[in-house]
# Entry
Amino acid sequence: MVASLQTDLNRTLRFHAGLIVLTNLRLLHLEEAVFHEWKLGDIHELVLEEMGPTVALHLQTGDSTAWHWRLTSRFLRDIEAFIVRFHELRGSNGNDDEAGDDEEEDLFAAEPASVPKLASKPLLRLLGFSRPWIGLMLCGLGLTVASTGAGLIGPWLTMSLVDDVLIPLQSATHEIDTARVYRFAGGLLGAAVLTWILKWATTYVVARLAERVTSQMRRATFEHLQKLSLGYFNKKRTGDLISRIGSDTDNISLFISINFIDFACDVLTIVFTAVVMFSINPVLALAALGPLPVVAWLVQWVRVRLRGGFAAASRAWSAMNSVLTDTIPGVRVVKAFAQEQREIERFRQQDQHIFDTNDRVNRTWSFFEPTIYFLTDIGLLVVWSVGAWCVAQEHTTVGVLTGFVLYVGKFYGRLDSMSRFVASAQRAASSAHRVFEILDVKPDMPVNKDTRQIGRLTGEIEFRDIKFRHGIRQIIRGFSLKIAPGEMIGLVGPSGAGKTTLINLVCRFFDVSEGAILVDGNDLREIDVMDYRRNLGLVLQEPYLFFGTIAENIAYGRPGATRAEIIAAARAARAHDFILKLADGYDSMVGERGQQLSGGERQRISIARALLVDPAILILDEATSSVDTETEREIQAALDHLVKGRTTIAIAHRLGTLRKANRLVVLENGVISETGTHDALMKHGGTYARLHAAMEEVNHA
Amino acid sequence: MKILTTGSSLALIDAEGVRHENVRPVRLFPLTDPQHWIALVGENGRELACVEDLNTLEDEPRQILAGALAQREFVPVINRIVNITRATDGHDWHVETDRGSTVFRLETDESIQSLGGSRLVIFDKAGTRYLIADVAALDRDSRRKLERYY
Ligand SMILES: Nc1ncnc2c1ncn2[C@@H]1O[C@H](COP(=O)(O)OP(=O)(O)OP(=O)(O)O)[C@@H](O)[C@H]1O
Ligand SMILES: [Mg+2]
# Structure
């Protein structure tokens, strides 16, 4: 088998599973009872046709056996790969003479079955995160055992105290043994002090472990986010990501530091006490442990209920964060359209949702805890009555019974705190799940293993019939262009034509669907992307400044730049003059997203930022759209001098900005409709001339 | 280039021999590098000249410039935080600075910013800057107080 393709629709567009298999000799189609086959030699072509949310794959044979399949567009990539394989195969077979006597490959042997890795339980995966601190973990565990053990000394001593000292004293058959009383009192005090110190150490060690693990998780998650492509962030809501990295990891931290240790303690105590109780008096012990199965069943019942509840709570929390990250940055629009009340309502709804989900969870476990408590009381009652009977029958002593009751108290106290553990473990599990969900996203831009380092480029760019789609929408439909080093290309075209998309492809924020972009003769997909981007200077349509000073923002692409270089870049971008007027000059804070600056000022800072990296390829996407015409002319003059020696792609709606361009490329509907100089295009009288005329009209109106 | 004092203001004769009145010196990096990069700005707000390092100037113009800068300069350096009290909108900081004791009001914790290392700048409600040159050099009591806000 060379390749296979699953189909999910039949020709009447009803869901129907099928399989197309390509071998070195034949193309087979299997669909339940139906089976078709074509000899490779008979097939003229496989053609893909996009039809909105579905796709048709046409098989052309030149006679009446032609066929077509329909698939949903989620298989688009697979179909493309399949067609590529088909072409490769035909290309290689063409060299052979008659392929007829070749052995056909085994149909199903070739493909190694890829076993999907089952996601392990989130809490177990947490253990993986603690691996680097295994020492700390063992230390915490050891301390837990020690402190739990120390906590059990008290009741033991009490037992002897009652039987050997107090009761004999009461029955007045003995003199009081003062030394012995002191020893017991001393022993009890010692046990208390030991427990205190050990617990202190345990709590600290475990809290530290929890902080370490969650900080590691946060870092790993953020690091992973940085690796994901723009496509991922386009789909994600900021608030959701924030709450996953923020509050979800916090849930986990709380769980590890408080509940996990308690849980370990609880289990140990329960086991220890059970052992001790059985060794003292098996009958009493059995009586005491009677309610245990009920508890176990209860835990399971609650666990299932809580799991869904906490997941819903986390999601509700995310939704609320999303409302915040949506409305707070957009506060100007909210106010301008007087929609405060509506945003308040939107927030109220999300908040109500949080309330409701939490309320549901609380209802479950508020029932659970008192129930455990109730069972404790029952257990004690049973022990007292069985104990009283035993004492009456002289099977046991009062001292043993006293000690026993203390143990039973401890035992059920632990069960009680274990019940809290159930809740927080479920919360942590659903939080961990949400964090791992981010970590499990595969970077969707295939990272080529053996990418080349390219160093400094000369700036030659070639687009070879590239196509690109966002989801199922084709945005670039076959774009070919060769840009010489140092050439300035002006990219114009109506809004939505795909200009910014093209730039995104040059920056390799997305990969082309078909064709290739080559820089200095290297396919973009084969060179190291970081290394490549160091050659780029990018000014985006919506300039983005980071919270920090102006100097920091200008030096963003080259943190090591000297002040002289920063000033020079700012001067070239005509930003220097307005920076002078700010109270703190280059040390002024720009506010979040640069909100304290005007739109034109932000643009000039981002031009300075692009110039400072001294890029081989300069990309200006509407870089001067928000500055006044005079400033634009000045920036233009500075750029004219700076674009020398670098390849420049400039997008502008104000066509005058592109005066200096060596060539203008008009993009319409994802294809080039015209290229040439300003004069040539004006003479040609096409789209460019029309855009130009419209602009003149506006200017002179 | 020549810098002159004319009464209370400065004048500059630039390389082409043109004389500019009412020139004011502006620090480009007033917080991170106050001793370098001083721009001389004309009446129209445009930069006329820029001095990278004051020490490269002759004595006379340097003193004139330093004097003019000192006139416009007001960044008290906090030596001790005496008390921080709650006010209706923010907190009142009672401090001792190199320019004497004062009280200023801070609106939010975000008004305190790090300048890298242990240097802090504090912007009060009115926009005046106060500098803490080195947090570690403050006395223990002041550091405790500061810790609650930064
Ligand atoms: N992330 C996305 N997902 C889906 N479609 C997108 C996405 N980004 C852009 N598009 C679509 O791609 C088309 C081209 O967008 P692009 O931003 O390239 O236009 P443009 O030529 O830069 O327009 P303008 O001049 O208005 O900036 C638009 O129709 C837009 O709706
Ligand atoms: Mg655009």
